[in-house]
Amino acid sequence: MSEQKQLFKVTIDNITVEVEPGTTILNAARKIGGDVTPPAMCYYSKLKDSGGKCRTCLVEVAAGSTADPRPMPKLVASCRTTVMDGMVVKNITSDRVTDARNGVVEFLLINHPLDCPICDQAGECHLQDLSYEHGKGASRYEFKRRTFDKHDLGPYIQLHMTRCILCYRCVYTADQVSKERRHGVLSRGDHAEIATYIEKSLDNDFIGNVIDVCPVGALTDKTFRFKNRVWFTKPVDAHCNCDKCSGEVQLWMRGDEVLRVTARKDEWGEVKDTTKGEPGWICNTCRFERKKISDWVIEGPSQVSRHSVISQGHYVGMKKPNETVAKVMGGRDPKLLMNIKDVSEVNQVELSEIKGPATSQVFKQLKKGN
Amino acid sequence: MGRKLLLEKAHVEGIRHYDVYRREGGYRSVEKVLKTMSPEAVVEEVKKSGLRGRGGAGFPTGMKWSFLAKPEGVPRYLVVNADESEPGTFKDRYLMEFIPHLLIEGMICASYALGSNRSYIYIRGEYWWVKEILEVAVQEARNAGFLGKNILGSGFDCDIFVQPGAGAYICGEETALIESLEGKRGNPRIKPPFPAVKGLWGCPTVVNNVESIAAVVPIVNEGGEEYAKLGTGKSTGTKLISACGNINKPGVYEIEMNISVEEFIYSDEYCGGIANGKKLKACIPGGSSVPILPANLLLKTAKGETRMMTYESLSDGGFATGTMMGSGGFIVMDEDQCVVKHTYTLARFYRHESCGQCSPCREGTGWMEKILLKIDQGKGSMSDIDLLWDIQRKIEGNTICPLGDAAAWPVAAAIRHFRDEFEWHVTNPSEALVRNYGLANYAKPLEIAAPTA
After folding, report:
1. B375 in helix, strand or coil?
2. Is the CB of A190 less than 8 angstroms away from the CB of B362?
3. B399 and chain A in contact, CB less than 8 A
4. Alpha-carbon dihedral of residues A77, A83, A87, A92, nearest 10 degrees?
């Protein structure tokens, strides 16, 4: 029995979960899933040392551990704080956290161009999701926004520094995934920017992964730029024999055309592990060169697990996030002012049952079937 | 007249050099420590002295030393933080410039206590001439056998290296300093792990202010208990205060921590009163990042007691009616100073110096600066004052390092105590451009609240 690892019990928003020692609060919350998971803009579980910078994942620690049940005076970054046995964490149940998070989102947005209508990342942008949940309808910022010139990073990657939130993920990716890092953060404060010091292009085999890790539209794929909106494309899992990487990718298709190739992502928007259990980073050849359907062996439609707009139009295999509200509220169901299902025709239908375009005809048929 | 421990000999001719310093009794503490004391005994002595960190936070130095992890086979490091960049603070420069051997002597004692064989002085890049003075002093100490291998035959090796920074305020934060010392971009690290466990090159490290390390010398020489007799309560010993602003005698003063703020400002021994016969309006007693206090709260606490130059008394009343000792950058403002403009200047500084790593500080400091400029230019509105308050509240405590707090506190305190002046700027924009709000009621005696039963 001595070999069995002792598990730490940690309570996050009234839900207790057992995790291994050394797990961060964020990862413990991800084990629970759903609403109690703090958002993370800069933390990336596959990248060492990432996290702690964006401050969106701040949580309140109401009790440090069983041994020392004192609360922590400040809000802590859940992505970098490890759990202790008997720790009690408040995320969505804490007003302080909600308040601070709203503040952080407002700060992130004051210099963001909000050009979602022309941004390639729209639809799969973490900042969009975050501001949808925590942002305000209007900004209190009334000054000129900070802007940068577009920086050319070579034939494949476009840097749009104005959109950047300085999460440092691409810096860590270049350090840890690709062979060499040619870009970094220059200057400091609100004029800090991701750049190459003297105009150089980013080209080595795995550098394309910076596009996948970028939570916003600062680093985009030049081969896909302005080709299509992501929610009009159809994600399918595919693989190929690649000598550089695992070759397990996600194709974003429209008709028979492969518009974009990315790594497969999990429900937190991070690169999934491959079937061999390694992080599924893909090489530049797979990402930028193999744009023909004959290059790939298609496995089938991808599971779209986020409740994002990408899932629109292809509901097959959509994974719903864990519903935690009742547990957070101690077993009570939330009191609804109005149940939308009472008045809506659309919502009486289980969306995942719709295979194909969701027309009113389909809705009527399914409703009858109910 | 209070006792001087650090600057007593600072004005002896030639004290900058080893021969004179040695003749005046220098390096006695190194001899005492290496020949008669164990490292633990030195730490114990510093603990007994009650010495509190002189860099700003006021954390007990002996305690900090005892937290240092001591794993086998891993080197430990002592780093002296000479990156003194806080506006209004220039005490360390004075000490290093005039009596550099005191710092080196303290460093040898501290290195022995902590078991550090390579100690570093991380000095602000703008102090390039001080760096040269220190390097000469280190070389002199090395020639005299106080640095290098087997110092004084004790078997203890120690060497000191002087490393200049590249001109960033943020590198005064201990983890950013360590990053910079390692040759990386000076971004603060995310704590934990603390430097005492994982610091310079992943090894246990103690980062101390110049003055704290210099104070080890008198502590060793006279004994911790003797040192603790100076000062009041938990504020033991002497403190260097760099006084500046609208006073008759700006400069660096060594005070024993048992005098009142009023005495410090008005007595001829220290600041010599407000310049040009003006009246005191406000004061920042600990360097730019501590809260500003109006005259009435500065001289007397909210309870009606005389405010003393001690850690406890200055922070009496919390941030609502108190401030902090900070690093001892004593900035005095007379009735002709404009608090709005002053706060704007500070906000501009913090915006420029924010490292840009975490979002509240990176975006918030710039936002505050813009709003303050707008109010100062007479284009502000009342809601801007509330917005400022809200922004500072959302920066404070939510950042990686204390720079966010340091940027938020001056704004918060200015609005808390000088809201009248901000409002006057909003309601009288054209007048605010040509004259200052003046003393107003900021020096009026406080109403002492009746004790509640």
Report:
1. helix
2. yes
3. yes
4. 40
Q: What contacts A361, CB < 8 A, 6 or more positions away?
A: none
Asked whether the beta carbons of B436 and B420 are under 8 A apart, the reply is: no
Q: What is the pLDDT of residue B452?
A: 58
Binary contact (B356, A185; C-beta < 8 A): yes
Q: How far is B192 from chain A (nearest CA, A)?
A: 8
Contact flag A166-B362 (C-beta cutoff 8 Å): yes
Give the angle subtended at the CA of B256 by the CAs of B250 and B260, to the nearest 5°: 70
Are B200 and B77 in contact by the 8 Å Cβ rule? The answer is: yes
**Is A146 touching B (CB cutoff 8 A)?**
yes
pTM of this structure: 0.89
| pLDDT attached to residue B70 | 86
Distances (CA, A) of A86 to A20, A66, A81, A137: 13, 5, 14, 39
Asked whether the domain spanning B339-434 has the same topology as the one spanning B18-228, the reply is no
Q: Which of B198, B357, B359 to mutate to test the interface with A (most CBs of A within 10 A)?
A: B359
Interchain CB distance below 8 Å, B394 and A99: yes
Chain B CB contacts of A191 below 8 Å = 356
Nearest residue in chain A measured CA to CA from B405: A74
Instruction: Give the mean pLDDT of chain B.
Output: 89
Top-level CATH class of B231-334?
alpha beta
**For residue A311, pLDDT beyond 60:** no
Does residue A106 sit at the B interface (CB-CB below 8 Å)?
yes
- Whether the CB of B365 is below 8 Å from some CB of chain A: the reply is yes
Asked if the model's pLDDT at residue B387 lies above 70, the reply is yes
Phi and psi for B381 in degrees, rounded to 5?
A: -130, 165
Fold of the CATH domain B339-434:
de novo design (two linked rop proteins) (1.20.1440)
Mutate to test the interface with B, among A59, A190, A193 (most CBs of B within 10 A): A190
- Going along chain A from its start, the domains and CATH numbers come out as 8-104 (3.10.20.740), 113-221 (3.30.70.20), 230-311 (no CATH), 336-369 (no CATH)
Contact flag A100-B170 (C-beta cutoff 8 Å): no
Question: Which 55-74 residues of chain A touch chain B by CB within 8 A?
Answer: 55-56, 58, 74
Evaluate if residue B410 carries a pLDDT over 90: yes
Percent of chain A with pLDDT over 70: 90
pLDDT band at B76, cuts 50/70/90? very high
Which of B352, B393, B394 is nearest residue A189 as measured by Cβ atoms?
B352
Among chain B residues, the shortest Cα distance to A101 is held by B394
What is the value of ipTM here, to two decimals? 0.87
Helix (H) or strand (E) holding B95, with range, is helix B91-98
CA nearest neighbour of A141 among B172, B245, B131, B363: B363
B18-228 placed in CATH 3.40.50.11540: yes
Q: How many CB pairs under 8 A join A and B?
A: 94
For the stretch B180-222, pLDDT in tens is 999 998 899 988 888 888 899 989 999 999 999 999 999 999 8
Q: For chain B, give every domain's residue range.
A: 18-228, 231-334, 339-434
Query: Is B358 in CB contact (< 8 Å) with chain A?
Result: yes
A261, A249 Cβ separation under 8 angstroms: yes
